[in-house]
Design a protein that fits this description.
2 copies of one chain form a homodimer. With about 220 residues, chain A is mostly helical. Chain A has 11 helices and no strands. Chain A folds into 2 domains: about 50 residues, Homeodomain-like (Arc Repressor Mutant, subunit A, Orthogonal Bundle), CATH 1.10.10; about 170 residues, Tetracycline Repressor, domain 2. Helix content of chain A is about 75%, strand content about 0%. The radius of gyration of chain A is 20 Å and the shape is globular. At the A-B interface, helix 8, helix 9, helix 10 and helix 11 of A face helix 8, helix 9, helix 10 and helix 11 of B. Chain A binds a DNA duplex (30 and 30 nucleotides) through helix 2 and helix 3.
Chain lengths: ~220, ~220
DNA sequence: TATAGTTTTGACTGTCGGTCATTAATTGAA
DNA sequence: TTCAATTAATGACCGACAGTCAAAACTATA
């Protein structure tokens, strides 16, 4: 369907605001941004922001949605490889790590989004719905890989793929969350004792759960 | 050392404020609390809050510290059991789950604390230092259990216990975080597909990483 | 009881998210 | 081209809230 010039301009404006906000998050951190700052950076009046977004939250949500789309795209490509299911899971893990390293702003916004989870007026938001949909899609990629693995025998089929998928998703978030902060040099005393790279941490994690879900038969072969 | 009445009263006041805030978090949620609300609940003037805490953040930090102390205490007790290292890790996992279920407010505040990790003026705070110290202590319990397990042969010693500890800690946070929100009925589309209990999710997780870090020898025995 | 010292208080301030009356730009009919 | 009608953009303003501080209330001592 063809868009009118007005519609195209409107969308461009909206993207401009999102771009400006992403920049600011990168430069100032998500907690040090005001609507006035965003307006200035995007070179529009403050009121204009509210013509495109319901609230400050909505802008962050829009960024989150953009990020999820990119991540899902990467996941989709990873799943195209001709590999046994177990390897696909590892591939997804590495894809996620790469995404977080290359797009720290999106990772920041994902965390912000998570922190809103008990926010009631969020549930209504159409944007939030789309974020949820994206998360579900990401989840589907994992489950698909698990199912492939159970089919080809590389993954132990004693688990329910959906339940295992959630465990893997949650655990990955947790591990990468921790590794991310270490990398960002955020003060975390826990992490002082060990000298690990984000890479090695994630590798260890992948090996750990990889071994855990491998078929006994297969794991003997290593 | 003996405390004067004044000192005792001062400490009691402080605890009173913390108690009041915990109550409010439970009733209203951490995002719907104002300093005026806390003052009213604690039956003191607003200014008084600032005689005991530098800021609103500090109050939450104090709650976080209290929670960490309780959690560490539970971890300490779990480690006293006469079990092989691998079982100790499982025991720690279940202890953590139980703690979160019984003390949702502390879990909420832990998450709040985590979200402050890139907050610069936090690093100075003496309270934050103590929270960090607590986290490090929790971490030590896990590492200790891993070392025991590598000693008694129940855990594969191909991993570095510190690094594995961080992986386990991060992954556990992630899984329980997810399960917690499911339980709290927070809208999360990802979770709609599956009908799992917090229990079963954590059990699966424990089994997954348990298998992953078990010695090959041992895992054959199951 | 008088007074010096200490603690508590809530009215006040600055900041920020969000609103809305006003202004500017665009469109399209005459 | 002109001008009225419609639509878009703006920033002065508002309410809410974290944090401050001068004054009030309280306590201890002589």
């Amino acid at each position: 369907m063809k868009l009118t010039r007005k519609e195209r301009e409107r969308i461009a404006r909206r993207e401009l605001i999102i771009d400006a906000t992403e920049n600011l998050i990168d430069r100032l951190g998500i907690d040090n941004i005001t609507m006035d700052t965003i307006a200035t950076e995007a070179e529009v009046g403050k009121g204009t922001l509210y013509l495109h977004f319901k609230s400050k939250k909505s802008i962050y949500l829009a960024i989150s949605e953009r990020g999820s789309r990119l991540l899902n795209h990467a996941f989709g490509k990873a799943l195209l490889k001709e590999l046994p299911g177990l390897k696909l899971i590892e591939e997804l893990g590495r894809t996620y790590l790469k995404f977080v390293q290359e797009n720290p702003v999106y990772f920041t916004v994902f965390n912000y989004y998570e922190s809103l989870i008990n926010d009631d007026d969020l549930a209504q938001s159409e944007l939030a719905q789309r974020c949820e949909e994206s998360a579900r899609e990401a989840m589907t990629y994992i489950v698909r890989a698990l199912q492939i693995g159970m089919q080809d025998g590389s993954i132990n089929n004693k688990y329910d793929p959906h339940e295992l998928g959630i465990v893997i998703w949650g655990a990955s978030r947790g591990v990468i969350h921790m590794a991310f902060h270490k990398q960002k040099k955020h003060h975390m005393k826990i992490l002082d004792d060990v000298n690990f790279s984000l890479q090695s941490l994630v590798s260890n994690f992948i090996e750990l759960i990889g071994t855990g879900m491998a078929n006994d038969q297969q794991s003997k072969n290593n």
